[in-house]
Each structure stands twice: as C-alpha cells, then as structure tokens.
Amino acid sequence: MQSELRPRSISAASVPRALAAGWQIFRACTGVSMAYAAIFAVIGVMLLWGVARIGLAPLAWSLAGGFLLVGPVVLAGFLSLSAAVRAGRKPGWGDVIHGYRQVPRGLVGLSAVCVLLYIIWLTDAGILYSFMVGDTGAGWRMMLPVSEELLRFQLGAWFMGSVFALIVFCISAYSVPLLVERRAALVAGVAASVKAVFGSPVASLVWALVLGAAVIVAIVLPPVLTVILPVLAFAGEALYREVFPG
Asked: Where are the bilayer-spanning segments (predicted)?
C-alpha cells in the first residue's frame, strides 16, 4: 500500500493536459453534469441573494468563495460519472446517486472537516465585518470595495480564506479520489495528498490558482458554474491519475 501511494512528481504542463481531459469527459456526460452542477449554482445564487437581502452584501464574497472549502464534498458524484464514461456506459443520475451511496467513512470525516473550516471562515469574516464595516444597510454595490473600510475588509477576509483554502487544498486535492476508490484510509489518504502537493509545488500552485480564478468567475457569473464545476472536477481526477497511476 505504501508504494502504491507514493506520488509521482508532475510539472505545470500537467494542468492544461488535465483540463483538456476534464473537458473531454464533460463532453461525454454534458447533460447530467450540468444538471448536477446546477444544483449548487442555484444554492449559490440563493445564498448570495439572501445576504444581500439582509444587508450583508460584502459577506457574499466570503460566502461564495468558501466553495473552495466545501467543494470536496460534491466530488463523489462527479467521480462516479467519470467512472461510467471510462467504463463505456452512458452516465445518468443513477451514477451520481451510486457515487454517494458508496462514499466511505473516511470521506464523510474529511467532508466534516471541510465544512467545519468553512464555518470558521464565515465566523471570522463576520467578526471582521462587524469591526471594520458594521453597515447592515448594504446593497449589491457594497460587494465592491467602494470605500476604504470595505477594501480593508475584503482583503482581510480573503487573506483568512486563502489560509483555510490552502489547508483544504493540501489535504483533499488527492485524498478524495484515493478514498472514493478505497486505495487508502483517511489518514493515509490525507498524508499522501499533502505529500503529493508539496512534491509538485509549481504544478500545485498553478492548479490552485486555476481553482481560485474559477470560483471568482463563478461568483460574478453563477450560471457558468454549471460548466466550470464539472470540468474542474474531472480535471482534478485526471491530475490524480497522473500523480497516483494504477
């Protein structure tokens, strides 16, 4: 098992190759992938509308950006769709449901940690907002740094969020597929993921920047998430298979 979990080092060139592979898988299951991703796009729109409705629009960036933290929770469905494509079958909702039915306990525990970090980030962002802004009459324009206070708040919130996102990225980038395919238990999977991330620092940095940029685009244009989310999920699996072949 230890030799199996020894990660291969990859270069930054692996990232565009993985994105191309992710796009090919997406094209093979476009309908169900977009429909599945649309669930999270709708949830995101409702959350953004809700915080603006109660006058807390500046918190929308932290709320939506936190998807980088809870994203691993939704990967089981996409990995199951990818498995159906690789098996030569036509993917459907049954594959998504099957993916969650087969989720191992380790992934449940990892998801709980990701959700906990998300809650901590939102709590910290809320505290920072109350001290630095405190305006509960904010409208949509308050999502932009239209004042010095808002600019300092957004920079502070994103700095805190980037720390949490880095932690989640390191522990989940490769551990999720390792757990789903039952190639490792929770501790071994997380350790292998961290080792893989630091074993290919340039590629990991490029991949993390791609994920971060995609989330920002999705915040501005939520419907785009229906394409971005599945492509990135399938691309992440392609990277995993390059780092942990076999």
From this structure: 34-52, 58-85, 106-131, 151-174, 186-210, 216-240
